[in-house]
Amino acid sequence: MTLKEKVKEQILRHHSEKLAIAFGLISTPENTTLRIMKNLRVFNDYHSAIKFISKLVVREIIVRHATSFHHFKNGSCSCRDYW
Known about the structure:
InterPro entries: DYW_dom
Strand order of the largest sheet: 1-2-3-4
Low-confidence stretches: none
Mean pLDDT: 84
Protein name: DYW domain containing protein
Order of helices and strands: HEHEEE
Organism: Trema orientale
Family: Belongs to the PPR family. PCMP-H subfamily.
Helix content: 40-55%
GO molecular function: zinc ion binding
Strand content: 15-25%
Largest sheet: 4 strands, mixed
Distance between the termini: 34 Å
């Protein structure tokens, strides 16, 4: 793997939720629930960002990561920020 490929992989690994959400928002009808599946843990800053996005776009976003599901709606998460 070249250095360029390694850098690209690192960037995508750390922003995959945001990319998936952005793609989901532009490719699905309004008022539909977005479901994001991920095999790695969601980081704290992404958790906060997804809460904000759910409030901004007025949509439910469900994220499954390595250990649990998170249901984001109206700026809050089903885990009540305990994860």
